[in-house]
Every structure is written in C-alpha cells, then in structure tokens.
C-alpha cells in the first residue's frame, strides 16, 4: 500500500489561468446582474434584494473555491490540502476553507425557498389559511439558513489535524513534508452529522429545479463524478492514471469555475425584464458612442476647413 496514495500531478498552467479568468468573469457577470436587478422596475425591493443576495452568494462560492481553497483531495484517504490558490497567503486551513465553501453553496437553498415563499404569498389572498405574516416567513427561512450553514461546520469539526502524520506510510515517495504539514484529515465516524445534513440538504434542494440545475450540475455532479473516477483508477488502475497529464479532479475544477457566470447568465437570459434592461443599456451606449464619433468627425472637418482657409 506504499504507492496507494499517489501524489496529485501539478496544476497545468493553462487550467490555472483559465480558472482564474473564469472567476474574474464570474465577478464581472455578477456585478452586471446586480446592476440590472437594481435598475429594473419590474421586481419589488424585497424580491430584488433576495436575487442580489443569491447572485453574490454564487460569486463568493467561486472566489472561495478557486482563489482561497484550490483543494486537492487524497484518495481513498479522507484528507485535503490547499494546492496553490491565488490567496494562499490567507491564514486559513484546508478544512476551514473547504467547509466555508460548502456552507456558502448550501446557503443558496434557503434563498431560493425565500423567493418561492415571496412569490407564493404575493398571490395568496388575504384571509387564506396559507397567508403567513412577515415575521413567520423570516423566522422560517432564518432557521433553514442556520441549518444549511451548519454543513460546513460539521465538516470542519470532523477534522483531525494531527491525523495526517499517521498516514505517511500510505503515501508515495514523491510526497514532501511541506504538503503533509498543511494537510487536513478527517475521522469517518465524526463525519456522520455532516452526511446527515448533506443528505437532507440535497433532498430539500430537489424541490427547486433552478437550484438543481445550476449548482447540482455544475458543482455537485462534476465533483462526485471526479471523485468516483479518481477512486476507481487510483485503486484498480494506478499505472494507467500515472500516465495521465490531467486528472479528473483538475477537469472538475475547470467545470466548477463556470458556476457563478452560468448563474448570472441564466437569470438574465430567462427573465424578459432583465433582457430588455440589458438591451436598453446596450442601445444607449451605442447611441452615445455614435454621437461622440459624429462630433469628433465634424470637429476634425471644421479644423481642416479652417486650416485650408488660412
């Protein structure tokens, strides 16, 4: 078992540059989407604020996952370490940053539910048994938010920092001491609360198709498939995997980098009011640009005419 946990290959430069570019693009698209929501008159202030929180949450998930965590997982051991994130100078452990990312991703589910409740209560007539007070709605969503945020906390509490040194005999020779020093490992028994919270969160999220389509397909599904692929090849076909230039987890990191951008673009493209607002901004910009060019051309012609006369 001395070569069971093979050292992950170095992050390809092209992958790293692309992931950083996509994270920057996520920030750009999120800012654009927030601007459209704030400028739109088709949604109420409460609904607009919920949309903005949802967009900002998706953006922060991308930043934490790509720039702060950049996780590398040891398989089949339950260990993780930060590879070479852009914000590697931040004093945070791999377990804390990974748990933070999971909490932020799970936190979007109650926000979707709050949006659903707001739409439902808007059309529910007064006097209906399904008409709830604002206090009851806020309290219910707040309890859900605390529950989903606990996902990262249960993951972090299962960490055993000193456990990494007991796994040295399971690592291949190319592992160096600097990686082992920043490695975080977990107790499988202590992870049971995390499994329970994760199971309930996934089943609750199934009720919301938008939530199931974006974070599930772009974050959860690639992550799960890459872990399964890594487990299969590292366990039964280690020689085949050693010849690969790219590992499944590297491809997963690239796919996840589309998360916030896809979220923002989906909101814009599926909402007629936001599409119209974006088209209006584009037409205004093009009109102003055309006007400036015309003025510059006339100014240049006037100058040439003046020089010819003199």
From TrEMBL:
**Pfam families, per this entry?**
7TM_GPCR_Sri
* Name of the featured protein: G protein-coupled receptor
Which species is this record about?
Pristionchus pacificus
């Amino acid at each position: 078992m001395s070569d069971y946990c093979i050292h992950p290959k170095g992050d390809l430069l092209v992958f790293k540059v692309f992931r950083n570019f996509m994270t920057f693009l996520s920030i750009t698209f999120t800012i654009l989407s927030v601007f459209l929501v704030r400028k739109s008159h088709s949604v109420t202030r409460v609904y607009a604020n919920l949309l903005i929180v949802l967009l900002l949450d998706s953006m922060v998930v991308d930043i934490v996952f790509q720039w702060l965590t950049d996780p590398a997982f040891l398989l089949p051991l339950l260990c993780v370490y930060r590879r070479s994130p852009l914000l590697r100078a931040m004093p945070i452990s791999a377990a804390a940053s990974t748990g933070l990312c999971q909490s932020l991703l799970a936190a979007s589910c109650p926000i979707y539910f709050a949006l659903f409740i707001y739409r439902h209560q808007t059309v529910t007539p007064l006097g209906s048994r399904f008409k709830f007070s604002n206090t009851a709605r806020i309290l219910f969503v707040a309890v859900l938010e605390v529950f989903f945020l606990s996902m990262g906390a249960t993951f972090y509490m299962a960490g055993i920092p000193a456990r990494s040194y007991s796994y040295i005999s399971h690592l291949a020779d190319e592992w160096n001491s600097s990686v082992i020093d920043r490695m975080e490992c977990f107790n499988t028994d202590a992870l049971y609360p995390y499994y329970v919270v994760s199971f309930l969160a996934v089943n609750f999220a199934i009720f919301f198709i938008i939530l199931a389509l974006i974070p599930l397909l772009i974050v959860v599904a690639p992550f799960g498939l890459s872990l399964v692929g890594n487990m299969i090849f590292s366990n039964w076909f280690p020689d085949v995997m050693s010849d690969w230039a790219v590992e499944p987890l590297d491809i997963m990191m690239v796919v996840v980098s589309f998360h916030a951008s896809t979220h923002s673009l989906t909101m814009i493209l599926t909402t007629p009011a936001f599409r119209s607002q974006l088209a209006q901004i584009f037409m205004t910009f093009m009109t102003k640009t055309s006007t400036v060019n015309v003025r510059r051309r006339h100014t240049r012609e006037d100058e040439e005419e003046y020089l010819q006369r003199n």
